[in-house]
Description:
alpha/beta, Rossmann fold, six-stranded parallel beta sheet, two-stranded parallel sheet, about 10% strand, globular, glycosyltransferase, UDP_glucos_trans
Amino acid sequence: MKLPIDTLIGSYTKNSPDARVKVVELPEDEPTFTKLMKSSKNFIFKYIESQKGTVRNAVAEIMKNSRSGRIAGFVIDMFCTAMIDVANELGVPTYMFFSSGAATLGLMFHLQSLRDDNNVDVMEYKNSDAAISIPTYVNPVPVAVWPSSVFEDSDFLDFAKSLSVGPILQADADKIEQEKQKFSEIIRWLDKQPDSSVVFLCFGTHGCFEGHQVKEIAVALENSGHRFLWSLRKPPPKEKVEFPGEYENSEEVLPEGFLERTTETGKVIGWAPQMAVLSHPAVGGFVSHCGWNSTLESMWCGVPMAVWPLSAEQQANAFLMVKEFEMAVEIKMDYNKDSNVIVGAETIEKAIRQLMDPENEIRVKVRALKEKSRMALTEGGSSYNYLEHFVEDVVNNIS
């Protein structure tokens, strides 16, 4: 389903790794998207809801042209739960692909259970300093790190069997045609740096900061003395729903003379081939928004993180990494990009120094987790087995 915003989906689907994967592009409905965007906070969900008829017709066409005339089921993510209705109409099961971690899923289920089974109004916890016990966490989880979506008036999803499969990574996904030149330039710069000497700063697809915060980060990097690779993105216009863009000249937001003073130790870039960067031996630390994909990539590559969550479930992910696993350094765990709070250079510098300390125990733990994550994907590993169960379930539906 195409959205009137650049999601780079087209670039990925054109390079589908398997001929058996057929991509069906649904027509773009920009008038509906624009109307909902201006009138609703949760416009993405409502837009997808409005497209049920289009999806129903597309699936009917697929069934009509297939040999068996049947489909095994729907695989959807949490933004597309409206399509469960379409699957039910067709009499096929729905499989939910939950792209965050199992601990966050447990948090969402537990809060839903409190409301449904115990008549607890979760809204009463909003702005509270409380911390409650969650079955998927060892420590009580502070309300401040709960996903903001739990305070919205909507059901999550009914309880269902879960299969834990991961990490799900695509190492070559970053190599989109129009970015190859930038990709090569970044890797060439990393090739010149000593092993484990570079701190990489990247805040995901949506992650960006306004000018004052950018300057604090720059001061912290310069004062830390560590080599750095910084993915600096330009915030989109506030009146538009767009992803962060590229600066034509990053000097406009950086402290005067910063690029000249750090020319031997640092590199400021726009878009970053994150997986390739984290896989490079020169990278020794990762300052991240703690999105789950970034967290998985960090663990897979054995690169410790300093967490700076910005939105969604990222605070819960940060809590998991810092307090539960003790595998990350905290910058500001309850940060919210809409709160207008500026994290000072001293706080950021302190976290970077901790992160890059070769004696820090988190490095040993992250290296061990790197090996375990690989074992999970080998034959007999947990993710391998769960994926096998999923395939068996799908096959049983069409046999």
